[in-house]
């Protein structure tokens, strides 16, 4: 069986045409240009602005949507050269949209620019991105070290599915205990260190530089889920090998699209698209090009949205704390990881768009959310995050419900933990008035204790 070769497709900013099909290409120099851009990185918005702009087929300022599932060639010999990897997307040769699609590839370039990585490719969901990366990096019998606090779906994948279906086991460790992380890594067997930049739902901040150093000393790849902190944190700049996103959240911003992304070295992304061994190619978590187009139009204003999400989260967290609530937010100086996040967060983007308030019991948490939605119209009771309206959920009984009571306790997820993804619709003072009224009703009924 011939080995496929997939060149550095996601990093080339050179627009190839059919006229240079059989001549030399500029893949290497394009790689150097992209690597150079990453090395001078200082702001993800600037890196996005410097990325290749894809124009429409007839000169439109927006790219055209390539909706084809399959692609034609001019000469029959070309098809075989494409299947051997001699000709590929880096030179505008496409086989089939499960493999590569021009519109999805353009969104992938934007994601690589956003995260400062050499390459990226987009998937049908965030879980598709997570599972595909782990299955590409870890084989049967392999081992993963992961954070004790993760999104419930990720925790279920690591705890139940991978051991049963793939003979891949995971050791869960408190990522703030660096010595425990070091001791959990089994030399030669552990392949991946996996954690979230800002944890879901407890908002603990990972020491990405130190965790990356520990992992790399033992030959372990670092995979970071950065869904909670796009623009705010740049894990690859801090030492991570791979950055995962559920694009469904802040990057989409509309709560209307399910999508994911894998950002990392070109060698990894290419291997994931390999015709014989690639998880993205063979498992088929393909992104629809029409979705890719929609998302590519939203990324340019992500920086503006994130700044407002983060600004309001900080204001609300500060004011709620003064009212006596037990608030968890990395932007507050009493948060245990405030100084750490401040040391490596991208300037001017704040500390994230989520905050938590611990009501101690599920009953009090539900009562607060009821008032916030049904009495004062502050936000909606719904899972997910990154929407322009505020979304609220009691994590222990919703997005972390895959974890048992012992696992929730290890992750420090209180039964009454209310996670709020702070929106930006309406004026700040209008929304604060709605929030304050709901809190007053809770205080009047004696439904929570002050801290």
UniProtKB/TrEMBL annotation:
GO molecular function: carbon-sulfur lyase activity; pyridoxal phosphate binding
GO cellular component: cytoplasm
Entry protein name: Methionine gamma-lyase
Family per record: Belongs to the trans-sulfuration enzymes family.
Gene3D superfamilies noted in UniProt: Aspartate Aminotransferase, domain 1 (3.90.1150.10), Type I PLP-dependent aspartate aminotransferase-like (Major domain) (3.40.640.10)
Matching InterPro entries: Cys/Met-Metab_PyrdxlP-dep_enz (IPR000277), PyrdxlP-dep_Trfase (IPR015424), PyrdxlP-dep_Trfase_major (IPR015421), PyrdxlP-dep_Trfase_small (IPR015422)
Pfam families according to UniProt: Cys_Met_Meta_PP (PF01053)
One annotated GO biological process: transsulfuration
Keyword match Coiled coil: no
Residues modified as N6-(pyridoxal phosphate)lysine: 249
Necessary cofactors: pyridoxal 5'-phosphate
Keywords: Pyridoxal phosphate
Keyword match Transit peptide: no
Annotated signal peptide: none
